[in-house]
Write a structure and sequence with these properties.
This protein is of the alpha/beta class. It is built from 24 helices and 13 strands. Strand 8 (276-279) and strand 9 form a beta hairpin. Helix content is 49%, strand content 15%. The chain has helices spanning 3-16, 29-46, 50-55, 95-109, 119-122, 124-132, 152-165, 179-189, 220-230, 247-258, 263-266, 301-313, 336-346, 353-357, 361-372, 394-405, 407-415, 429-432, 439-461, 465-473, 475-485, 503-524, 530-533, 537-557, and strands at 68-72, 77-84, 137-144, 172-177, 196-208, 211-219, 270-274, 276-279, 287-293, 296-299, 322-329, 376-378, 391-393. The strands form three sheets. Strands 8-9-5-6-11-7-10 form a seven-stranded mixed β-sheet. Strands 1-2-3-4 form a four-stranded mixed β-sheet.
């Protein structure tokens, strides 16, 4: 990259973001431009408007190396940025800056605000609410206008931190944006051209009016090469970029790795918008080489990125994987029809595990048993129960029954509830929902869960820092221990929908269990991050056994 590119980036940042930035404490020009780089990164990764991205910049003398924070709601991800503007293109981000950034993020995820000051502290309540949410993921981004790649020491430090966070499931990742990536991001907004080469097998044409689509089967390896060549610019016209760590992504990656030869049958495919195309002269219906110009993947970003991830782990497996692709050619890739294709292909109903649960006749039996008792049980997608005093839904029932069942099911409910609905013909689903389980048992388990949740909400207000995170993220493990202590499984299957425990008793047990959990984690897992800790089967089994022993000792002394 040249000095000309650097000048173009500077002008773009000044025009787009300077009007929306607070430059308090930014005495020098490179400090102001660093804040603009942070705002650009936040805007691009979250889709926030420029003004909101500017307000999300946290650069300050006590920012812990964190120059910007924003929430990407569509993928439940907290985006955390360190930015650096350098007028010397031949540079990068130093190891000390990276380590400071990691230490700052570490304090943040431990809910330790003692070292922070300035704008980030003003947003404490907002950030805490996001971190307390069980599904929140972290995306660490280092953005610079330098041209150098990260050194191995910096990469290793970031890998180690994310590895610790990803103890049980992937919730943290990092990305490095140098001058080339920053420039490409800006250029994509000016309709930078991406041409995609592909060999389509068994291809065909569909035409309606002025709109023509080519469709066929392509090698997964070709699709991966698109992503390797263009990264997230490939999705510049999509309503969202590539996500990471979602249930859908993990399922796609697993399919590509475990059953690549049948990937075509299990994938929804990819839709690409293109302006023009070239076709090789040696084309027949069985195979043809095409080049689709000014292209963007508008549906299937998760398929593309997940295939790329699978290729990183086991590249040889993708040799037998194919994927269905359609290329919709339009005169104006940014016009109304192209936008309609993007929107409609991304908003069609998708059928998942929860939808198949509705076919289980046991669910209808529960609904009828609830109805006889004047309560409502909603198990179909789209059905809701607005008044918790009058019933519950499938999600409530699944979590409560999982915690009543055992520690493995409890962790699954915390980590990935959809796994409990994956197959309605066998465990873990059948362990929760079966002919021996009555509607009254479901309601009692749900009511006990709600009482415990209310007690934990009060306890949360009495704690701070890391302890508060343990109370929040350890809620399901605590519920399992309390259900075990109260011997919920011994409650007989009857038509009595009344909770057989007093509110006072539940709150007393919850208070004792919470205090014991805090002591156990402090003694045995002092360096573990609370969110991934309570998604780790092995560690939760150990913590759970210790907690049950401690509660039993309490029972004996009473």
């Amino acid at each position: 990259m040249s000095g000309l590119h650097l000048a173009q980036i500077q002008r773009y940042l000044e025009e787009r973001f300077f009007p929306h930035l607070d430059f308090s404490g930014a005495q020098q020009e490179h400090h102001k431009l660093s804040r603009a780089v942070a705002a650009l990164t936040l805007s691009e990764r979250t889709g926030l408007p420029d003004r909101t991205a500017g307000l999300s910049v946290t650069d300050h003398s006590k920012d812990g190396g964190i120059d910007g924070i924003a929430y990407a709601a569509d993928r439940s991800t907290l985006v955390i940025v360190q930015s650096k503007w350098t007028g010397s293109a031949n540079s990068g981000i130093e190891l000390g800056d990276v380590l400071k950034f990691i230490d700052g993020v570490r304090l943040l995820v431990n809910n330790d605000w003692s070292g922070f000051g300035g704008p980030i502290v003003d947003r404490r309540s907002e950030i805490e609410d996001i971190l307390f949410h069980p599904g929140t993921r972290l995306e660490l981004i280092l953005a610079t206008t330098g041209t150098h790649d990260l050194e191995e020491q910096q990469k290793s430090a970031l890998d180690n931190f994310c590895g610790q966070m990803n103890d049980a499931t992937e919730i943290a990742n990092w990305t490095y944006l140098n001058q080339e990536r920053v420039y490409s991001s800006i250029a994509s907004l000016g309709n930078a051209q991406i041409d995609l080469d592909v060999n389509l097998r068994n291809w065909g044409i569909y035409q309606e009016g002025h709109y023509v689509a080519y469709y066929g089967t392509a090698s997964a390896q070709e699709v991966v090469k698109w992503y390797q060549d263009h990264g997230n610019l490939l999705f510049s016209r999509n309503i969202r970029g590539a996500l990471s760590g979602t249930d859908i992504n993990e399922a796609i990656t697993s399919t590509a790795q475990e059953d690549p030869s049948r990937f075509w049958f299990f994938s929804n495919g990819i839709t690409v918008i293109s302006e023009t195309f070239d076709k090789s002269p040696h084309v027949n219906q069985k195979s043809g080489n095409f080049t689709f110009r000014r292209s963007s993947v508008v549906n299937g970003a998760q398929t593309v990125s997940s295939l790329a991830r699978a290729a990183t782990n086991t590249p040889e497996l993708l040799e037998s994987a194919d994927v269905f692709i359609r290329f919709v050619t339009v005169e104006d890739p940014d016009g109304d029809f192209a936008r309609l294709v993007t929107r409609r292909t991304n908003t069609q109903n998708r059928v998942g595990g929860r939808e198949f649960v509705a076919l289980d006749p046991e669910q209808e039996r529960y609904r009828m048993e609830f109805a006889v008792s004047g309560l409502r049980y909603a198990y179909r997608s789209g059905e809701t129960v607005t008044d918790p005093l009058k019933g519950c839904d499938l999600t409530d029932a699944t979590i409560a029954l999982a915690c009543a069942q055992g520690i493995n099911e409890t962790v699954l409910a915390k980590r990935e509830i959809s796994r409990l609905w994956e197959d309605t013909t066998r465990p873990p689903y059948k362990a929760l929902f079966n002919p021996s389980v009555s509607g009254s048992q479901i309601w009692i388990a749900v009511e006990l869960m709600r009482e415990v949740d209310r007690a934990l909400e009060a306890k949360r207000e009495d704690t701070d820092g890391r302890d508060r995170l343990i109370v929040v993220h350890g809620n399901r493990l605590l519920l399992w221990a309390i259900m075990h202590f109260l011997e919920l499984k011994k409650v007989k299957s009857t038509h009595d929908f009344n909770l057989p425990f007093t509110t006072e008793n539940i709150r007393t047990v919850t208070e004792i269990a919470t205090s014991q959990l805090l002591s156990i984690v402090a003694a045995h897992y002092p360096d573990s991050y609370p969110q991934p800790l309570f998604k780790n089967q092995t560690k939760c089994r150990d913590i759970g056994n210790r907690l049950i022993e401690s509660l039993e000792d309490t029972k004996e002394t009473q």
